[in-house]
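Exercise 3.2. Students should predict the tertiary structure of the chain below and write it as structure tokens, then compare their answer with the key that follows.

Predict this chain's 3D structure.
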Amino acid sequence: MTKATDLRANTDDQLSEQLGNLKREAFNLRFQAATSQLEKPSRVKEVRRDIARIKTLQSERTRSEAK
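Answer key:
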């Protein structure tokens, strides 16, 4: 699980790359859950929250640039 303070140090490109990786992982976790092969169910929640953190940070940056 990453913290928001750690994410703020990243550039926009790095955040986009991390977001893509997390979305891919979320897809794989959903697929594993559907086939009953999920080893760590708590990881689904962690990934979803990390995605939300990154999206929130990206929207904050977009809003601050618009002003």
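Discussion points: The radius of gyration is 14 Å. The CA atoms of residues 9 and 15 lie 10 Å apart.
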